[in-house]
Amino acid sequence: MRSILVAEYFAFVVGPALGLSLNDLYPFGDQAGDTAMNKNDDGSSPDIPISTLFPFFNHQHTKLIVNTNGVISFLRPVGTYTPNPFPIANDARMIAPFWADIDTTRGGTVWYRETTNDTMLDRATDEVRAYFPDFFRFRASWVFIATWDRVAFFGCSGGGCSKNNTFQAVLITNGQHSFTIYNYEDIQWTTGTASRGNSTTGLGGTPAQVGFNAGDGIVSFTVNASRSPDIVNVDEDSNVDIPGKFAFRIDASDISDGGCNTKGRLTITPRYGPMLGGQYLVISGPCIEPGATIELTFLGLPDKKNCERKTEFSMACITPMFLYTGDAIVQVVIEDQQGDRKTFLGRYTIINPADSKHRAYRHSASDWFSGRQQISWDPDVAELKDDEKVDIHLFYLKEEGNRGLKWQKEILKQGVQRLLGTTELFLPTSGYALAVRVTSSPQRNDQFERGIWSDIFPLALRSDQAYSLCKNWLNTEVQLPPLPSDDVQPCPCTLDQALLDIVRFQPDPDCNIFNRNSQFSRTGNCLHRRDAAHCIRLTDLGQQMDNLCCYDSSNNLIDSRLKEGGSLQRYHYLGGSRIYPYLTNFYFDVLPFLHCCRYTRNGYNVVSGGNIVVAENICPRFFTHREYSSCENYEPPRPARTNGDPHITTLDGYSYTFNGVGEFVYLKTTDGTFQSQIRFEQFRKENGDLVDASVCTAISTQHTNTSGVVEVRLNSIRTADILVDGEIIDFDESNAHQFPGAFVLQIASNDSNINSTKKEFIVSFTEIGIAFKAIASSKVLNILPIVGNKSLAGSLRGLLGDFDENPNNDLQTDSGRILYPNSSTEHIFDDFGVSWRITENSSLFTYEPGKSYDDYQLRSFRPAFSVPTNLPPEVVDLCGTDQECAFDYAVTDSADLAAETLQITVIFNTSVEASYEIKNCANLPSVVGGVWNASSTLEGSNATFSCYPGYEMDGEKDTSTEPAHQATTLTTNVSTGSVTHQTSTLNIKETLRQFDEQFNKILPYVIGGIVVIIVLSVVVGILFLRRSVQLKKMKNIPSGTYTHTDGFTFYSHETNK
């Protein structure tokens, strides 16, 4: 039986029955530029095109209709004069401020207008923010005003025709969220005579109805007293404590009213915020009397601070600085003037500093040395806008005992005009891990400090300072247990593999290709790994260490001995037991890398006592404690796909089409600990017609006892949403969210071929090793599943097969029967696909108000099973020889769907190529005083050995001890196969020596000697060419073919590694 949801609001009377005056209504009439409807009975305006998309009941609308009988409708006119009880079907989607039998031929006028006038937008914005505190950042972009001015009722006679009603409906939106305000100036009648009302009083019979109707016969919202005599007092009632005024949010699948209540949980906005604190929260829910005191506590923290009462409906609170991430329980205690105390609880999520949005921006952020620097901020953010001036604070980390860290603070600048939005500052050398906070001034002693943060960044150092800090770090590191590199998941070998492996890795928040289009990357991308285009980190905390893998612009894994790339990390940036999220990793892993390898990469000169001492290149010593990135022994995960009119490729590579309608087991483990379910709905054309095809519209997944239920589903307003345990996840404060057992990421697309309105998500279940990439457009949700856990082989079931590397047994039904792989599409539909339909009790899906499991199960549906033989030219032009694209175009008549099917198939094929294991060699050896240079360790690439400045190859016993003037190099070809791997070991001799204090006295002789040496070097070089056999006597270099080039030492080594 179809369920019916009818929401009723029980309005309350506050104060004397005064109602609103005409001045309280939005301006209307000729002077306001309104359109007046012709005098009529039961009439309607023509379709009114509107200049924006208006969201109502989870649908977008481009037009509306104003109806004389007190209704604004969207799908068709409403001429019905007696209000039917909500809910109503037959596409009667309506906003009903006062649905009754109005006859303007007996008196009154109906006015309407669309406006984007700044004054009207400001007024609408203020009202929404006041009545809906959790939308304190809302800004109206469009308003529609409909006014029924002194309208009479049908059938009035005598004194009845002098009775009239004046009311107004105001529609407000920013394109994503929408609201309606009902204003009632005076209500004197409720019923026309055709609805059995009295002709002289306008009362009795079937009175007016106030509310909203979705038009599906399921969902509606009705204001209490509708269709009862008491509706005549609607001008004295309210849901926002203003007699005659009602406010509602109407964009979602259910209607929510404004105001406050005396029970329930707190509503906290924003719901997520930075670990560093200082965030301005608007908390609503309780009704707050004037003069009440409000005490805020985050459970588990000792400090208690006050909040500020903003209105009867809301309070403003500031968050403290945290040292952990994840959910925090918020407790608010409200004490009124009589001493009565009430306690309310809510939930707030703390975001990792690497993931949170920064609202203060460093200029020229790559290297901030001590000295003059520039910073900017948004002057209108809530944290600052209450004050005219701001202070600039510098925070820096100080190490305490047992590797603890503590923030220290100093003031850089005071009394800066907030509206400037930028200022110059002088950066001191107080610490090495820094953050700048733009702080509201003056601070309130009874509240936590409010402000907005920059990113956490390193202080750039001179080479001698960096060298000293690196040495100190090395001395400390030798006293710690070495990192167990053998137990760490190897890096993917190429960027394509890194983008595929969303199971074991996740994008590094500080450096990834998605940041190019992200609102979170204004300060910069890859600041700590300059040579990288994209980096990834382990998703699983494991032993609380991390493996950072970075890729260059050529899509190759970076060898960090050559360029700034990745390495093992002692601490995971997500934190862990007694490990501060991001801070510990930044201080003990990122900073040492920069000190040892960026600021001292080429060594430096120190003048001491008249002597010049050339320091060593200390970077290689860093990698004795943080092994550089390697893809040796890397095994890629395996992809699958579901796209278009569902075309499915299993994890073992078997492809088929299953276009059922309903909810099905997508993938599950045989022990039942993991299950993913997928929803297919019948495809609807732009004109609303249904076709014999289906598409994926939602997927819901849970790793039992490890994660919550994570659901991705299409949304006609926001394209798609992610829900965790039924709650929609907000990505305004961060693109990434960590949950127990699951990681979700919203990424910006860098693919220009796909519609810009699409959304792309990654959902990874970190403990079991299964992930999904969801690519959503307005009509279809495309899914790319990834499995990277080999222990699951053969233990999976569902539409994606069993993951045993045998595609021929993937058509296994729920009962265990296996269909032949050459089965027809119809046979697969009847005997395999529908066998995986879920039951109502097993469903993981969250159903919208008025919807249930049964609404999505169309068991009688029979799809089209084959492509028509004579395809139109436009299908061939778009699809070429791709049969899936042609099928989707022919069956749905949608070129957009067909094009998307083609595009997702290309993406999937790229993933399949990346899933093939790549032959690669062991890492080239580290050598004191030199380094191997290789674009990669993949089969067939070349490696060149180079000496560091101050070193040269020691080939013969009588090698010169002078410093090499140019890098000495040796080249080898890297290949694999049946060739046994050899390691070329070079004996490198340090050639540094101190100059004599009397150097200046013998300078002319030195210059003369250098000239002689250069001449002799040329002669010796020629002799070397003629006597190449002597080169084979060089110590520790494998025999092979070598050549010499005049002008500098160059050895070409052709022996296979």
From TrEMBL:
Residues 638-844 form the VWFD domain. It holds the Pfam family VWD. The chain crosses the membrane at residues 1002-1025. Residues 462-626 form the AMOP domain. Residues 97-253 form the NIDO domain. Coiled coil: none annotated. Keywords: Disulfide bond, Membrane, Signal, Transmembrane, Transmembrane helix. The keyword Signal applies. It is found in: Membrane. Residues 1-19 form the signal peptide. One of its GO terms (biological process) is cell-matrix adhesion. GO terms for cellular component: membrane. PANTHER family: MUCIN 4-RELATED (PTHR13802), SUSHI DOMAIN-CONTAINING PROTEIN 2 (PTHR13802:SF59). This is Sushi, nidogen and EGF-like domain-containing protein 1. It comes from Magallana gigas (Pacific oyster).
